[in-house]
Design a protein that fits this description.
By secondary structure, this protein is α+β, with helices and mostly antiparallel strands. The chain has one domain. It is about 15% helix and about 30% strand. The chain has 2 helices and 8 strands. A 4-stranded mixed sheet has the order 1-2-6-3, with no helix packed on it. It has a 4-stranded antiparallel sheet with strand order 5-4-7-8. The protein is globular, with a radius of gyration of 14 Å. The protein starts with 12 loop residues before the first strand and ends with a strand.
């Protein structure tokens, strides 16, 4: 659909069902890993969306983990929920694999 885009211009190649991030150039000996979040909640004004179950199924392969924004954008594509008009207003509450809670903006 998009033609041939060089790998050096792509941060991730993604698939859906199951949601997977793969870094271009990742080798087959690099194992897929689960994201390091136990909890992942999005707050948009008065709406709260708990993505924890979905995030716990997402895998990635590469040298660094996808950003919170990239994770949210892939969920938006898979779910068909469009929040692209308010990315600056979205707050995220994360529970890390160490049990720490982090609250921040999606674009932070």
């Amino acid at each position: 659909m998009f033609g041939n885009i060089p790998d050096d211009l792509i941060r991730w190649r993604c698939t859906l069902c199951p949601a997977t991030f793969t870094q271009p150039g990742a080798t087959i000996d690099q194992k897929e890993k689960h994201l390091s979040y136990l909890g992942f909640t999005i707050k948009i004004q008065d709406t709260e969306i708990d993505l924890s179950d979905w995030v716990n199924e997402v895998k990635w392969c590469g040298s660094y983990e996808p950003s919170v924004k990239e994770i949210f954008l892939l969920w938006s594509c898979e779910s068909g929920e469009s929040y692209f008009h308010c990315l600056d207003d979205i707050q995220v509450e994360l529970v890390t694999d160490m049990g720490d809670t982090i609250k921040r903006g999606l674009n932070a």
